[in-house]
Design goal:
Layout lengths: L1 H24 L24 H27 L4 H23 L4 H33 L2
Helix pairs in contact: 1-2, 1-4, 2-3, 3-4
């Protein structure tokens, strides 16, 4: 179970990062001027808000999966515990920085911080996955 949770976390974070980079490169960072939701709320977004809406929605799903992975690791996968906890902390920081970025209208240093902490978050989810893989591999040989 931990292997699938950690892989799902990794895949979701990678997708959120790719979409975030696209949003930054295409200058759509403030297409949704409010936080946390776009002007249309939870409804299907119009084209103007589509990528930012999907980015934020994917980030919420990724955060939830990371938290579930962390709780599972704390209870049943001790070798992945530290990196899973670090990933949970980093995802909370990412969400906070994302909120500040929108409220501060894309301040460059905040955007750079958001991107760099995203890399750290990806690294923590990758390490959690690798620890889970090692745990699963060692348990299957017993």
């Amino acid at each position: 179970m931990i292997l699938w949770l950690s892989f799902t976390s990794l895949a979701l974070i990678y997708g959120v990062m790719l979409l975030g980079i696209y949003i930054t490169a295409s200058h759509q960072g403030l297409s949704c001027p409010g936080w946390p939701l776009c002007p249309n709320g939870f409804n299907f977004p119009p084209p103007k808000y589509f990528f930012e809406h999907v980015h934020r929605s994917m980030a919420i799903v990724a955060a939830c999966v990371i938290f579930v992975t962390t709780f599972y690791a704390i209870k049943r996968a001790k070798s992945a515990r530290k990196t899973a906890i670090a990933a949970s902390i980093m995802v909370l920081i990412q969400i906070l920085i994302g909120m500040i970025i929108v409220n501060e209208r894309l301040e460059a240093i905040l955007v750079a911080t958001h991107l760099s902490t995203g890399v750290i978050l990806f690294a923590m989810t990758l390490l959690t996955f690798l620890s889970s893989y090692q745990l699963t591999k060692s348990n299957s040989t017993l």
